[in-house]
């Protein structure tokens, strides 16, 4: 794995910048002044890179991280990462140790974390590591944005690709003389971060080549995750073939992320899948799996997976509105286990066995950002919810249709954007769309009977409503 990653160079070309020069704060006075204003409660729109300003908003308004923090808090003592990720951590640790030797004479520190931002190990220059430990950049400290503000490790969980944080771009004042760069390693099945790798320097800038190195390092580790995903899918398919031959009803198999790997013809008919859908024959490639547009399905899968991790022989059931416009039906879920790890679920429609699923009560009101934050070019855009007509998912990236044009949301994941917008009259209308029902001007019927919302008659902007969501949207719109 590490053979495919080039040597790591953290010193800028021709800079001779191995510490001892002016502080990073002094060379970035504009950012430092912006930080001072923002940390005291002012809102700013430029002067800071958009991904950094978006992080500041999260830290100040959502996570309420103390900007005067000088030491990262300790991480919880429990070890809750998936046991089958140990091979990932071993590979990442080997890469971190190798990189640590390469930066040892340039004042660098390399650290790796788990998916919660908990440091698992650090390597590099002994004096730099000693200084880092004064800020608790050491094993079993927590460097997520929620705990420690804007930093290479924590912020990498919130953005795509490598992220650099230099000097006063850090949210916490105690880290303003550090430069760091990090990247998250993500599970190809769930999209969730499972680890990160970060490089830091004290009082000196980072080479512009570091982000490229991080991207290649992450790709080399994610190859192992991809291979594991293929192996897991083969185990799920084998289990499905055995169960489907014994069960005459509608059955399907899903991966750990709730994506359908295989479904028999009865299930395909029930779910309104095309006859030539790849999942009818079974798919191994993660990109070809199908994501069901069934209300509460994702929550039920998370509940079942958590139960199965505690007891692999567990079985449970839920009632789900599988067919649009029809009453919910029971669905029994049973974990698929391979090598003592839960790798997926077997779902049998019309059956009711094991522990019942109970919907959680509506959560209490959450402290939300005062504005919805978007990114356009090199600028952060602060949007009132009323300016947004819809949100559209493109994998983990979310695009906002607004009165100021099409703008990328700073928050990743349509579920997270939906959570921010729901209190302002937005509703999920499709697995890829959330719409502002207060901005719906006209309705149309699609060619297959589905509903289409028109939020801007001047441009004839169309937002599709899936058949599953159509009855609820009609009710809310009073039509």
Automatic annotation (TrEMBL):
Segments forming domain HTH LytTR-type: 373-479
Keyword annotations: DNA-binding
Region of interest (Disordered), ranges: 1-23
Pfam families the record matches: LytTR
GO molecular function: DNA binding
InterPro entries: GAF-like_dom_sf, LytR-like, LytTR_DNA-bd_dom
PANTHER family per UniProt: STAGE 0 SPORULATION PROTEIN A HOMOLOG, TRANSCRIPTIONAL REGULATOR-RELATED
Name used for this protein in its record: LytTR family transcriptional regulator DNA-binding domain-containing protein
UniProt source species: Saccharopolyspora griseoalba
